[in-house]
Amino acid sequence: MQLSSPRLRAALLAAASLTLVAAVLPPPTPLGIGDRLFPELGNPGYDVLSYDLSFAYKDNLSPLDAVTVIDARALQPLERINLDFTHGKVASAEVNGEPARFESVGEDLVLTPARPVAVRMPLRITIRHTSDPRGRGDGGWVPTEDGLAMANQADAAHRVFPCNDHPADKAIFTFRITAPAGLTAVANGEAVTPARRLGPTTTWTYRTRHPMATELAQVSVGRSEVVHGTGPHGLPLRDVVPAQDRKRLDPWLKKTAGHIEWMEDRVGRYPFENYGVLIARATTGFELETQTLSLFESNLFSGDGYPDWYVESVMVHELAHQWFGDSVSPRTWSDLWLNEGHATWYEALYADGLGKYSLERRMREAYQRSDQWRAAGGPPAAPKAAAPGEKIGLFRPVVYDGAALILYALRQEVGAQAFDRIERRWVAENRDGVAGTADFVRLASQEAGRDLGAFLEPWLYGATTPPMPGHPEWSGKAAAPSGKAAAAPGKAAAGPGHAASGKPAAGGSAQ
């Protein structure tokens, strides 16, 4: 038989190549980049440059039809390509425009391209799949009263879309969300085009200007109102709130511009294209610093149980993450203390400025608990890994107030002026990048004019807490009553912590 169609011949040859390649390769296995706390997260061999994610939403109980397009660069020859992906069904896969074989192994989606990918070769991967919001309560899609939101930290983005799910590989994101008329869809970044109505559905398109870690991706669909404003230096503000709650929440939304100005006075210009809060009618147990659009539970602002100063400090915590954790992402998950310690530091500093909860009191209370936190969770820069077969409890008190205590000790050691220079330089030099604990120690030493490694090492890695400079009287470390840390007024005694967040640091972010 003679094949007259070149396209048909090419398709059959590609299919035959896939069969031959698969026959000579060993069985696919899950891979990771070797993160000590999440050993199977991330994938070696390529660098993601951009994600283009399309979601078609029906309701919050149905899988979304989705297309994920990944543009990447091969860092080594690739006969197979591993992606992190689970909790969805794959319909087809392509690599550089040709069909690719796909198999699920553990929580990896393993692609076998029609032909091996050479080093430094551009790599375009297209996956048609579903994204299922049902049946998982530990991250990914979060059902709300009227739709969905995302909470991917730390290891849940790959439950939503195929990706290289580790913060060390940041990329530009484009989101295209189609939903029934009457609903509003939002995502990180800014709108690329006006919403487009087509029959009974509307499609929204958003894109980030700055690279973003997968754990920080945000998509929300619901009966929402988008509130626009202006912050310092003309910064666009965009808040997304349940339409029925707009009037009640408006006083809180008006505080954001002042919070940004307060942070800028301490660490420099806000690092992204816009900012706002996404307030969802959902019970999550946390707040989350999704890039440019921080996620909050609506009941935080209900006036029941949380004093106003505390709610503001939670808002500042998530805002501070835009510099610490979002713009400067952790190199490994053991570097999480740099995210949460800094966000807790500025949260505590803000509360101190309001005259409601002094920084020194909070640090003294943290110091009293620090040894117990280290025993339970490991030292701040070396958290305990999960026991075999168990999921890690990464977000422990030691990486919140326990890590803020390191920053307090550093300021006591080098002085307030040098400390402020360290903070500003850290976010300026590492903007849009990744950095780890060794990078912070190196930069702090340079700014202080002396090697701080010997001073900081026991604070970062010690099983017990070192003496606090300037406070020899703290070394007794008397435990708080009943073995619990003192809590700020109106909250459960958790560290001190945000009871609604379920996290050990006041104003803790999501997992």
TrEMBL record:
Its EC number is 3.4.11.2. Pfam families: Peptidase_M1, Peptidase_M1_N. Its cofactor is Zn(2+). It is an enzyme of class 3 (hydrolase). Residues 254-459 form the Peptidase M1 membrane alanine aminopeptidase domain. Residues 1-22 form the signal peptide. Belongs to the peptidase M1 family. This is Aminopeptidase N. It comes from Streptomyces avidinii. The lineage of its organism: Bacteria, Bacillati, Actinomycetota, Actinomycetes, Kitasatosporales.
